[in-house]
Structures are given as C-alpha cells and as structure tokens.
Amino acid sequence: MAIAAAAGSWIAANAAAISAVTAAGSAMMQGIQARNAAQAAETQRKQKNASALNSMQDQYSQLSGAEKDSRQRAVEESMANQREYASRRSKISLMAAASGTSGLSVDSMVRDLRQQRGRNMNTIITNQDIELQGFRNQAEQIRVGTAARTDNRKIQRPSWAEVGLQTGIAGVQGLAEGKDIQESLGYGGDPAATLKGGT
User: Fold this and answer.
1) Is the distance from CB of 125 to CB of 133 less than 8 angstroms?
2) What does the longest C-alpha to C-alpha distance in the chain come to?
3) What pLDDT, on a 0 to 100 scale, did the predictor assign at position 199?
4) How many CA atoms lie within 13 A of 140 on its CB side?
5) So what's the pLDDT on residue 130?
6) CA–CA distance, 79 with 140 (Å, rounded to integer)
7) Domain residue spans in the chain?
8) CA angle at residue 33 from 30 to 36, to 5 degrees?
9) Percent of the chain at pLDDT above 90?
10) d(CA 100, CA 113)
11) What is the pLDDT confidence band of residue 110, given thresholds at 50, 70 and 90?
12) Do 124 and 77 form a contact (C-beta atoms < 8 A)?
C-alpha cells in the first residue's frame, strides 16, 4: 500500500507534466499521421492520373492508326475510281475508232462516264468525311473520359509548423488539465485520501 501511495503522490504532484506530455505526444502523432496520409493520397492521385494519361495516349495512338488507314483507303479508292474512268474512256474511244463512230453518241458516253466518276468521287469524299468526323468524336470522348478520371484536387498536407503548433497547443491544454487534476487531488495532496472519497 505504501508503494501505491507513493506512486499516487508522485502522479498527483506531476499530473500537470504528465498530462502535458501525453497530450503533446498524442497531437504530434496525429500530425505525423496526417502528413503521412496526405503524402499517400498525393502519391495515389499522381499514379491514378499517370494511368489515365497513359490510357489516353494508347487510345489516341490506336485512333491515329485507324485514321491513317482510313485516309489511305480513301486515296486508294480515289485512284481506283480514276483508273476505272481512264480504262472505260479508252475503251469507248477505241470502240468509236474501230466502228468509225464519232460525234454526239461518243460525247454522250464520255459525259455519262465523267458523271459516274464524279458521283463515285462524291461518295468516296462523303464516306471519308463521315469517318473523319467519327474519329474526331472518338478523340473528344477520349479527352472527356480522361478528364473525368483525372484527379486535380489539391491534397492538403499539414506543414511541420502546423504540427508543432498543434503539439504546443495540446501541451498547454494538457498542462491546464493536469493542474485541474492536481487541484482536485489537493495539489500534491494525499491520493489515498482522494481515493477513499475525502474521508
């Protein structure tokens, strides 16, 4: 019982210091944990954004390849249309020369052939425009999707000064609470008497 009384007296006499150190230590740990949590959140945010940007670049690369193929196909179709026109025109000219035909009937066939070539070119150009518009729409969807997945918020990380300030404030509050405990125990008073209910 003497040991308990001695320990109680020591705790009562040092309650303010014990309370101050405990509160300051707790505040310091909370500050360090807040800094670590903010750092982890910032690292995760950066990784998520990097992943979104890499995904966007991959999608743009695939889209660019498809657009290049589409343009190449339109050029090839245009050249095939021109070759078809030239081949058919030379056949008309050859048949006209072989049969001795000239004049309006040959001109009419050549005009029809030119009109067909023009209609074919319009179809090629229209199809190309539709495909290119589709690529522009897909590119915009990729951009919007990436923007939606990108995290641009600022992660607030407490500075060491803020942690120190909170630690100091908690220490002062702990000291005040400790002094209240000391006063309730009779300022270095008899903890045994306090524990017995003041008898």
Assistant:
1) no
2) 142
3) 45
4) 6
5) 94
6) 31
7) 2-195
8) 155
9) 36
10) 20
11) confident
12) yes
Amino acid 4 reads: A
Alpha helices (runs of H) in the chain, residue ranges in sequence order: 2-13, 15-99, 104-149, 160-184, 191-195
Radius of gyration of the chain (CA): 44
Under 8 Å between Cβ of 154 and 30: no
Q: Which two tokens stand for residue 119?
A: 């209609």
Q: Which of 8, 36, 11, 35 is nearest to 21 (CA)?
A: 11
Closest CA to 189 of 10, 2, 1: 10
With 0-12 / 13-18 / 19 or more C-beta atoms within 10 angstroms meaning exposed / middle / buried, residue 160 is exposed
* Cβ atoms of residues 188 and 12 within 8 Å: yes
From 63-67, 139-143, 169-173, 189-193, the region with the lowest mean pLDDT: 189-193
Confidence at residue 38, expressed as pLDDT on a 0 to 100 scale: 86
Contact assessment for residue 166 and residue 31, using Cβ atoms and an 8 Å cutoff: yes
CA nearest neighbour of 130 among 77, 58, 74, 80: 74
In the DSSP assignment, the letter for residue 188 is S
Q: At 158, phi and psi to the nearest 5?
A: -65, 140
Question: Three-state SS for 41?
Answer: helix
Residue with the bigger pLDDT between 194 and 172: it is 172
pLDDT band of 164, cuts 50, 70, 90: confident
